[in-house]
Amino acid sequence: MTTDTQTPVAIDSQIGPPLWLLAEVTYACPLHCVFCFNPVDYAHSGPELSTADWIRVLGEARAAGSVQCGFSGGEPLVRDDLEILVAEAHRLGFYTNLLTSGIGFTPERAKALKDAGLDHVQLSSRTRPASSMTFCRTPKPLPSSAKPPT
Amino acid sequence: MSDELARLQTTPRVAPMFRLQWEEVQQSWVLLYPEGMVKLNGSAGEIMQRIDGKKTVVQLIEELETAFDATGLQADVLAFLDIAIAQGWVKP
Predict the structure, then answer these.
(1) Residue B21: closest CA among chain A residues belongs to which residue?
(2) Residues of A in contact with B25 (CB under 8 A)
(3) A17-70: pLDDT as tens digits
(4) Do B37 and A67 touch (CB under 8 A)?
(5) Tens digit of pLDDT for each residue in B8-39?
(6) Do the Cβ atoms of A92 and A58 come closer than 8 Å?
(7) Is residue A63 part of a domain?
(8) B34/A17 CB distance under 8 A
(9) For residue A1, is pLDDT > 50?
């Protein structure tokens, strides 16, 4: 059997716009969770995009049809221009989401972000001591001695 | 009938968690909410864009009938509102 590798693959001309922009605004994070996709080699991760660059990216994504913007990282609250970026995303018509560990999420920043137009917060409960995490979570985490099911 | 008459005087509003807007790229009205989007069809978009928490249902119907030079839209509008309220998009 032969295969004609030159035949173009039919591409659906009705492919929709990229609906989600996941803006990983920083790799910096006060936590170092073992399961995180965040890079650990910060020395070679390069500089972060500037405020102006992110504003340009937000505009380009919006023009392409993105409607949801998730501010993530790293820990996005590490950036002190997050309120500016959220305000711009909101102004452009994004539904704005903050994906955070909550570290640095003071009442003052929460209010400032809400005033900037933040629509939604996803708060991960990763905290010490373990009793605090147990308090926050359902189902309860397994004890460290537990074996994974086989 | 009194229930329906009362209903016509309610002033529905878009539910707080939702953001309703025209999407140029999609050429449609959409409702945005956490992790999701509802793409409204033409009729739903025409109804939803007029819902502002101030107009009564009967005013919405009159406005639509004027805009589209039509009559007898009440049943369709009420049927859509039933769906929109059941889905949580609209608060009665």
Answers:
(1) A93
(2) 17, 64-65
(3) 999 999 999 998 888 777 777 777 767 777 899 999 999 999 999 999 999 999
(4) yes
(5) 999 999 999 899 999 999 999 999 999 899 99
(6) yes
(7) yes
(8) no
(9) no
Domain carrying residue A112: 20-136
Tell me whether residues B25 and A17 touch, CB distance under 8 A.
yes
CB contact under 8 A, A67 and B34: no
Is A5 within a domain? no
For A100-136, what is each residue's pLDDT tens digit?
989 899 999 999 999 999 999 998 876 566 676 666 6
Handedness of CA B55, B90, B27, B68 (dihedral sign): negative
Task: Report the chain B residue with the minimal C-alpha distance to residue A14.
Answer: B26
Q: Which residue has the tokens 């994906």?
A: A99
The domain spanning residue A43 has which CATH number? 3.20.20.70
| Tally of domains in chain A | 1
A89 vs B17: CA distance, rounded Å:
17
Q: In chain B, which residue's Cα lies nearest the Cα of A96?
A: B34
Q: DSSP string of A81-97?
A: THHHHHHHHHHHTPEEE
The CA distance from B32 to the nearest CA of chain A, in Å, is 6
A66: nearest CA in chain B? B25
Q: Does A49 reside within a domain?
A: yes
Q: Provide, as residue numbers in chain A, all residues whose Cβ is less than 8 Å from the Cβ of B33.
A: 95
- ipTM higher than 0.90? no
Residue A143 lies in a domain: no
In angstroms, the Cα distances linking B77 to A70, A148, B32 are 34, 54, 21
Report how far residue B68's alpha carbon sits from residue B66's, in angstroms, rounded to the nearest whole number. 6
Contacts of A64 in chain B (CB under 8 A): 25
